[in-house]
TrEMBL record:
Family to which this protein belongs: Belongs to the GST superfamily.
CDD domains given in the database record: GST_N_4
InterPro entries assigned to the protein according to its UniProt record, in alphabetical order: Glutathione-S-Trfase_C-like, Glutathione-S-Trfase_C_sf, Glutathione_S-Trfase, Glutathione_S-Trfase_N, GST_C, Thioredoxin-like_sf
Official protein name in the record: Glutathione S-transferase domain protein
Chain ranges of the GST N-terminal domain: 1-82
Organism per entry: Phormidium nigroviride PCC 7112
Keyword match Nucleus: no
PANTHER family: GLUTATHIONE S-TRANSFERASE-RELATED, HYPOTHETICAL GLUTATHIONE S-TRANSFERASE LIKE PROTEIN
Listed GO MF terms: transferase activity
Assigned keywords, A-Z: Transferase
Length: 199
């Protein structure tokens, strides 16, 4: 059975739980508390030398890390990853966008709020507002004319962007300014096998 090493509040870990559940693939959860340094132990660094979660153990001694790489691995050959070459590239395009233009601002802000460090990082949080809202603006513009991000059907591009977007308010971002994102979020939540980030 697959083993998912994760920190449950993490959106990056939630991506994998959501996809595995929607693919109906059984997996075992292995919680690692990043606040206690549990991903920096020698034992864990064998699984991921970068010391981060999520990590998917495919079989004994075979590990994958980086959330979007894990989603690619799991979704290939399924309805969650297109067979068309251009659409496949579009999925990857949005996943790169998520990691470089979205996650560093929205996810990091949320983490500081959830861990009670908002006051300590007050200036940094303010600096993350403009690029975070810019990323949401790019998404809003696309979703104004599309039901989903690629091929007008639900793919790992949606899972990747949904994970931190739907909880962006926990990082100080006002999602009421983005009606297309809100409609898309509801659409994602209506997909078969959907689970919440708390599950």
């Amino acid at each position: 059975m697959l083993k998912l090493y994760e920190y449950s509040p993490s959106g990056n870990c939630y991506k994998i739980r959501l996809l595995l559940t929607q693919l109906n693939i059984p997996f075992a959860r292995r919680e690692r508390d990043i606040l206690k340094g549990e991903t920096r132990t020698p034992e864990f660094l064998i699984k991921n030398p970068n010391g981060r979660i999520p990590v998917l153990e495919i079989e004994a001694g075979e590990f994958l890390f980086e959330s979007n790489a894990i989603m690619f691995y799991l979704s290939e050959g399924t309805e969650f990853f297109p067979s068309d070459k251009f659409e496949r590239a579009q999925v990857m395009q949005w996943l790169f966008f998520e990691q470089y233009s979205h996650e560093p601002f929205i996810a990091t802000s949320r983490f500081w709020y959830l861990t009670g460090k908002a006051e300590e990082y007050k200036e940094a949080l303010q600096q993350k507002q403009a690029p975070g809202y810019a990323a949401l603006g790019v998404m809003e513009q696309h979703l104004a004319n599309h039901a989903f991000f690629v091929g007008d059907r639900y793919t790992i591009a949606d899972i990747g962007l949904f994970a931190y977007t739907h909880v962006a308010d926990e990082g100080g971002f006002d999602l009421t300014r983005f009606p297309a994102i809100q409609t898309w979020s509801d659409r994602v939540k209506s997909q078969p096998g959907y689970i919440s980030i708390q599950q």
